[in-house]
Amino acid sequence: MRRVYVIIAVMFFAVPARPGTFLISLFNEQSLSSIMVSAEKGRYILTADGNESGSYGHNDMLYIAIRGDSLMVRNQSGPIGVFSRVSFSETGEFSLFGIKPAEPAAERSLYYGNLEVRSEYGRLSVINKVDEHNYLGGVVEAEAGNGWSQMFYMVQAIISRTYLYGNISRHSDEGFHLCDAVHCQVYKGRLTGNETIYEAVSLTEGLVIVNDDNTLITAAFHSNCGGQTVNSEDAWVVYRSYLRSMTDPYCRGGRNASWHADIDAGEWQEYLAGLGFDAGEAGPGQQSFSLRQPVRQSFYTIGDVSIPLRVIRNDWNLRSAWFDVDVSNPSGMLRFSGRGHGHGVGLCQEGAMEMAARGYNFIDILQFYYNGVKVKQIEELF
Ligand SMILES: [Zn+2]
Ligand SMILES: [Zn+2]
Predict the structure, then answer these.
(1) How far is the CA of 112 from the centre of ligand 2 (A)?
(2) What is the per-residue pLDDT across 229-258, written as a single tens digit (0 to 9) for each?
(3) Ligand 1: centre distance to CA 30 (Å)
(4) Which end of the chain is more exposed for a tag (fewer CB within 10 A), N or C?
């Protein structure tokens, strides 16, 4: 009797087990109507509507196109048929396949794992079934690029794993876990196959960042904070105890530490007028456009108008919301001199790279940028 209760309790209260593979929607923001699939390494089995229909090796190609609600599939030898669902599955380790979007055309990308294609709302639904290691390796390749230290990549791998598990249900009503675009985290499959990156994923196996109540954090990051990070509520309205503004002494020598932009004073006045600024009330000439931010501020105030600096950043496509406006140029151009690149919330990538170069480890770095967090094994949360 007691055993029955235990089983029922497990059925109702256990968190779902950690998935072995993840379903990532590829080219999620493009509406693809045809793709070329190629076996680059290893052999793949093509399955069409549940039936095996051939084996594909090096140099073999498959062409899949939308035809009404179905898929028209052919290979080099000719048509294979019209189906509602096809999959392309690896038969051994070290396999790699390519997808080249044909319509609209785009560059070929390489992926580990398996592929499943369906027709959905008049477009191709292209799903990569991939293990955590290769998914995270691809994300870190896309989000961090080449040329950095392994310790920095370990930091990025833990951030990406935290995002993966924290957002695992984000697309559940669409039948996959995450998309491959900025909406989730950028994933373009295997880019250069940088071994330092894939090793960093292995070296941090299972590690995620949690808040003091043991929930996965929103591990926001950006390129360079300019020397001071931003409170989450100042950038996005949402308060997070671990995303606090603080001084960052590590990023000031980074490539994205500063920037300049020149904006015509007349255009600037027109922009401000559109937001309710009355030039007649604000005093003489462009002198009133001046702004100084020795520390980060949230608003640009002129006359009766206060504009959030993050809105100005978006409207003018500026690299950051932390800038001064210099009005002394007689040519009528306003010089915007800014610090940092990105929203400034959470981890500063160029600061983290410098900390890693100075010998700090991934826990030091994560706890420096995320206030009061811990690094734990994901298994401890299930
Ligand atoms: Zn998404
Ligand atoms: Zn910084």
Answers:
(1) 34
(2) 999 999 998 999 999 999 999 999 999 999
(3) 13
(4) N
Ligand nearest to the CA of 343: 2
Please give the distance, rounded to the nearest whole angstrom, from the Cα atom of residue 34 to the centre of ligand 1. 22
> According to the model, what pLDDT value does residue 93 have?
85
Q: What is the pLDDT of residue 285?
A: 61
355 & 210 share domain: yes
Burial class (CB in 10 A: 0-12, 13-18, 19+), 120: middle
Q: Quote the ligand 2 centre to 296 CA distance (angstroms).
A: 13
Burial classification of residue 215, based on how many CB atoms lie within 10 Å of its CB (0-12 exposed, 13-18 middle, 19 or more buried): exposed
Within 10 angstroms of residue 171's Cβ, the number of other Cβ atoms is 18
Going from the Cα of 367 to the center of ligand 2, the distance in angstroms, rounded, reads: 14
How many domains in the chain?
3
Q: Tell me, in angstroms, the distance from the centre of ligand 2 to residue 91's CA.
A: 46
CA of 340 to the centre of ligand 2 (A): 7
Distance CA 237, CA 222 (A): 17
Q: Are residues 139 and 204 in the same domain?
A: yes
**Share above pLDDT 90 across residues of the chain, in percent, rounded to a whole number:** 84
Beta pairing partners, 115: 88, 128
Structure tokens at 134: 């290769």
Q: How far apart are CA 155 and CA 229, in angstroms?
A: 18
Indicate whether 113 and 47 sit together in one domain: yes
Q: What is the CATH number of the domain that holds 118?
A: 2.60.200
Q: How far is the CA of 183 from the centre of ligand 1 (A)?
A: 4
Cβ partners under 8 Å of residue 54, min gap 6:
45, 46, 75, 80
The pLDDT value recorded for residue 73 is: 97
Task: Mark whether 155 and 196 lie in a shared domain.
Answer: yes
- Same domain for 57 and 72, yes or no, is yes
* Domain span including residue 324: 258-339
CA dihedral 300, 305, 306, 307 (to 10 degrees): -70
Segments of the chain scoring below 50 in pLDDT: 1-15, 284
Q: What is the pTM of this model?
A: 0.90
Beta-carbon neighbours within 5 Å of ion ligand 2: 225, 248, 251, 348, 351
CB proximity list for 362: less than 8 A, separation 6 or greater = 151, 154, 155, 158, 204, 375
> Residues 199, 56: one domain?
no
